[in-house]
């Protein structure tokens, strides 16, 4: 296409051939998103999207502004201004009081070393805390205990009224990069290469008092821990910069299994050595982890890997799912997986069971690896990997969403309301199912007709 | 045999733009001689023979108290326009139709001179010898230095086409009323200023005189007053009197309702206020001296500091002083506003009447399509008209009374107006009216009872210095004498004759109450009264719609909310009727019984057997009736909830027809439209100034589009892209060429809302997704620089949302199109040659598409399940069936209608206040590369 635009075959080696990324083309039958709304408002990179309730979400980014949006109409509900620097963490905090009507709060932390609590109904700032010594990099709400934690160079525990309940001593200058809630009032905090388990315990003297104790330090990772995800009540997983994936037992914090360098070319003999050279650490870092009950999905470099917990192995992968690093992935209920990347695209994958192929390993050459859009090229790799007669899977590209002109930082899946994506191009795009929207509009139309009384036959 | 269209085609000169497709010239011997007047820019149907001017123009004349009727200016201000036409002579005629005997002076029983806020009068008259017909709008301005404080003016729209004046009467009247109102507003302001200055002068004079008197008193110890002292005292008294009078005048002019003026920046025309100020005229006795509202006074009061001067008791003779010019009479601002309005009128009514009427009808019809018309029409110019029409009649509420009881009150009215007619005629010292005046006068004098005269000896009033220019019988003077106040010195020196004019002037002042439309009617009560070649024509506004019954009106409406221009007109009529009624009622029994004749105009309207002359058949009436006949079946169904069967029949039928008759259709449209365009009068030009540019644009766009569809074999998919809402990029190095293509294609782009068309003619920076949301047709620069590469990268990245027309290499990359609609829209073998014709062809097909989209959008069951349990699939099936079978759409045409329907939905559900988020809809369909 570009070659055609640039004109007359002046570039004989088309750009398409250069890219090893699987492409799907323009015909995407399974892609439901045929309508989009561009939400403008941010003036800098939009990094975070959080869902508030069924139809609202908040966005935040480097401009320090938080916007509240209606996910159905794309209407801008509130513009929350209060931070002077970029926002580093955001977390929704819904009240658990059953008796009262539900109030939705969001907590934002910023590089200006403040944390602000906002009321999503009124769009007003509820409270602001500015006693931090360093930037809060992560926020976690423990709904069960009705407290929230902020992680910076130390870990603080707050209640709903923003009283500081307790805090740890200074941990490191680098600070906590990720927090995850574990059973038995424990949290796991990623601090550099270490994983520290803290336990919250009620202090003896007061009902509101909590103590936080460091229980264990896990030092199994070789490099900085970048991602931390809770898989289920019994397990959680971590991923590091050099591409280690470790699955931990959530109760006794022992290493259940680990997959070090499972993307490494040594595991996959078909990968050519020169490709290995080109793999910088950045391309092997585990950027993001997500999971369902049986699998952990890892965004590693440009690729996506599906690690099955029971089989303790990678069951499917897409080495070059995107042109550059995958920043966020999420598993949808319908066996689909969505990934977004620095290349500005969002891709929708489907995890499919592969038909049993003849068992003999297919000699996979260079071209097979650099496949020309053949969806089932992983089959061969998978087939080689799975020597046993276990079901084999592959990730099939079912659609891509192209709209952003810069890295897509994150996305938020709203079910049938659609998909919100945020990007470094300052935009948020709401992707919607055109068919559904169309019939919704018809519904609105006839409601309005009835309301205006135009349905009556007038003489 | 050569058919008529062919002849027309060959005799027509090709347009310049047509040069590429010019056909080989016809051999000399076969060519039909050109229409002899063609060089004139005229058409074979125009009756140009007798007129001495080349095109319609507007003339402003004044009945100057010094030199009599004189033309002041013409619009356009071009000597060529009026040509050999004698403006002086014509001014004389039009000014003699209605001398605005606005009554200023002392009404009986009133102590002070009284200003009457005189209603304008509107007359149509014709001069068959000159070949000129005119709509004449008389108005009166106030001038402190003028005789009776009034300066009669008139504005006339002069045309060679009588029908035009008649058929556009209502519109002309409305437009001219605005201009007049603007002038008068400015005039009142200026008049009030003048009065204030005068008051200051008088005040100052009084002080000076008072001081002098005091000095004299002191100096005088003889115990009796010297003549000098008495003189001074008299002078002082008269100055005081003058002050009181002027204050009263100021109060009167200020009491003119003005409230609205400061709210909106300029709004001189306020029908709802007309009632208020009609009141003082209605009861003859002095207006209730309600203090001017604070808001109004404030308008007048801030006047730059003014140093008063001493006023001499004796003023200069009226002939010595220079009368104020029209510009001085009004505020400069208002004067320019008026001129703007008049230019606007001139532009609006330029061209042939057929053209104007067609334009108006199509506009009225388009206005009815309030749900769909935004798609392909320029709404901004649709919006303007209706309100104006609605304001056609001033004052009196629409609910006054039914038109049926109109006839009863006719007779008295006639008399009133006749009186006024006479009074106006006789005041004009023109010989041709002489005999008529003579014949009328005896009757008149019998009927009137003259007021007792008082001889007055006020010598000092220079206010009315102009009152007695003496050349004719002065109506005002005699009336005023009844209460005996200021008198001009010259008049005082004359013996004041107790003349019949007194009575007449009474009638005349009464007439000021009457409303415009009646004014016209009464102006020419019967043929016999009017000199042969000076016969005023009847206003058409009333005659035009005898068939406009009330039951008809409802059939036309989609819903009451979407009331139409036509309906407005009808409202106007009923308003007029009620006007007549009220008016007549308030004038009953005030006049002599000699003139009991039925009013011809109104008599004619309900019953033609009166034997009064009827307006010749009007060209547009059958057309409009046809439309009326055809319309209700199609659009008269409210809510668009047609039963399936009805429209399916209609639509499938139309499909067959349109398919079969495609070729003739295009031919005949081309013929018709070329006829229409040649029809336009001396200066064929659009009726509406706002759409003048648009019209030119259309023509050019049509021409370019025609060229595009002939040049590019892949025009169909390109047009399909536009119609289905896929942004089309025209890529090229040459800006002019790209812009031309964009212009050509812009006629196919549906509007997303009421805003401007989503077309961007020229972009040089890389495009972004937001651009595709906003624009559906973009001209893009191709450069070889690195920046240019970025532009291309962006294009290839977003290629799924785009169709790309490469103007340089003549390629197109876009989805496949296999439908039929576009083939009809853009047939490269079309016989249409003119841009405007092709534009109309496109419009007609797009309108068909719009109506299909309308049906599709508003059929409930196509989008929503009939029952709760109905599965979604069956709704989808029904929908597709409807589109394919009932609407007869094939393949991709479905997508066009779906897209249009989506736009309709968005437009309809959008709240008026908010703009709504623009959304981008797209499909994942493969694109293909087309090459020439």
TrEMBL record, chain A:
PROSITE patterns: WD_REPEATS_1, WD_REPEATS_2, WD_REPEATS_REGION. It comes from the Eukaryota. Keywords: Autophagy, Cytoplasm, Repeat, WD repeat. The keyword DNA damage does not apply. WD repeats lie at residues 39-79, 80-128, 319-359. GO terms for cellular component: lysosomal membrane. SUPFAM superfamilies: WD40 repeat-like (SSF50978). Component of the C9orf72-SMCR8 complex, at least composed of C9orf72, SMCR8 and WDR41. The complex is formed of two protomers, each individually consisting of one molecule each of C9orf72, SMCR8 and WDR41. The protomers homodimerize via an interaction between C9orf72 (via C-terminus) and SMCR8 (via N-terminus). Within each protomer SMCR8 (via DENN domain) acts as a bridging protein between WDR41 (via C-terminus and N-terminus) and C9orf72 (via C-terminus). The C9orf72-SMCR8 complex associates with the ULK1/ATG1 kinase complex. Non-catalytic component of the C9orf72-SMCR8 complex, a complex that has guanine nucleotide exchange factor (GEF) activity and regulates autophagy. The C9orf72-SMCR8 complex promotes the exchange of GDP to GTP, converting inactive GDP-bound RAB8A and RAB39B into their active GTP-bound form, thereby promoting autophagosome maturation. As part of the C9orf72-SMCR8 complex, stimulates RAB8A and RAB11A GTPase activity in vitro, however WDR42 is shown not be an essential complex component for this function. This is WD repeat-containing protein 41. It comes from Furnarius figulus.
Automatic annotation (TrEMBL), chain B:
It holds the Pfam family Folliculin. The keyword Cytoplasm applies. The keyword RNA-binding does not apply. GO terms for biological process: autophagy. Residues 480-493 have a biased composition (Polar residues). Residues 48-905 form the UDENN FLCN/SMCR8-type domain. Keywords: Autophagy, Cytoplasm, Guanine-nucleotide releasing factor. InterPro entries: FLCN/SMCR8_DENN, Folliculin/SMCR8_longin. Belongs to the SMCR8 family. This is SMCR8 protein. The lineage of its organism: Eukaryota, Metazoa, Chordata, Craniata, Vertebrata.
